[in-house]
Amino acid sequence: MYLTKEEERILNGETGETLRQAIEILVALGDIYSADRLIPIKSAQIAGVSYKTMGDAGLEWISDLQGKVKVPAILNPAGMDLQDWKRLKISPDFAEKQKLIVQAYEKLGIRCECTCTPYTLEGFDAGYGDHLAWSESSAVSYANSVLGARTNREGGPSALSAALLGKTANYGFHLDENRVPEVSFDVESLLKGSDYGALGYVAGKLAGSKVPVFQLRNTPDADELKALGAAMAASGAVALYHVEGVTPEICRVNFEAPAEKITIERSQLDEVYESLKEACKKPELITIGCPHCSARELEKAAELLRGKTVSKEFWIFTSRELANRYPEYIRTIEKSGAKVVCDTCMVVSPATNSYSCVMVNSGKALAYVPGMCGAEAVYGSMEACVEEAVGRTENKAGDSN
Ligand code: F3S
Known about the structure:
Blueprint: H1 5-11, H2 17-32, E1 38-40, E2 44-46, H3 51-63, E3 73-75, H4 92-107, E4 111-114, E5 133-134, H5 137-146, H6 156-165, E6 167-169, E7 183-187, H7 195-207, E8 212-215, H8 222-235, E9 242-243, H9 248-252, E10 260-264, H10 266-274, E11 285-293, H11 295-305, E12 313-318, H12 320-325, H13 327-335, E13 339-342, E14 357-360, H14 363-373, E15 376-379, H15 382-390, H16 392-400
Bound molecules: FE3-S4 cluster.
């Protein structure tokens, strides 16, 4: 890989050990994936924040690093709400370690708002063709597909290295040739809301790591695209998708239609709603906000919960910035007894591990909760989640039993 004189000096350790380690990681990745050079990035988003996944080794590594990031950089969700960690019964030991991790990142100049939806925050807008180094899979999918920006799915260390250098290696989704659709999904039925998460759950398994293009019967909004991409990145390894007539790249570039064509039927989506109901008949915990809720999703949750009282634990995850921006939605939601939780999520927080059956409205959470939290998961729309939380569904299930 070609390096400039300045990059060679960094690699030789002439600008300090932290930058030497950072460029060594990027050069190693570049060599593996045949990158020709390093390219400038607009921003970085760094996963590997929760003490649940980082452990003491991760804390030690991050604490030893010196210097400042060269581009706007932000963290992925941590293992707890950084301001109100007692609320989800996080242990003091965990909280102490989690705070040290976040402080170590902050020392490097990284914004410590912990969210998987950085694109909703000021300073993290990304436009068509912008190069980024983001690492959370749903954020990567959204950036590549919905915004038309370009990022690989960085690991935590490589995203941090990119932030410290302001550059990343030029390979993968930074290159035109890797953004071409490889499989076409024709979706027969009209879709709405949580159907997009169910579609992503099904399509991700079929696509693996290929780039899909969807032929849909209707036009999804930004939240629906977010849910589709998040689920495909979890049930498969899709980091970029196109929707004919909707997403920006396929509207600008004249791609050839892929030879592989798959039809997805309504019954396959219905199975996602039905399949896990037997294993998880009585959810003890209901969660929404995977990826973190947008302003519109908070508004919808507030409308659905207005004047109601929940009878089960109901956690709604969003970014701190959106929670601060829309206090009226938060007040309405919390008046019902549901909890709005920031900086973390149902997958990376150890709090979920205390439950055996969790209801989610996210295809990504459906894919990850069993493995990461040791709980069964069941899928439903936001409306169904609210119904379950206030008890009506439980009564119905009780009647039929
Ligand atoms: Fe975000 Fe956590 Fe889901 S990081 S995409 S809310 S698993």
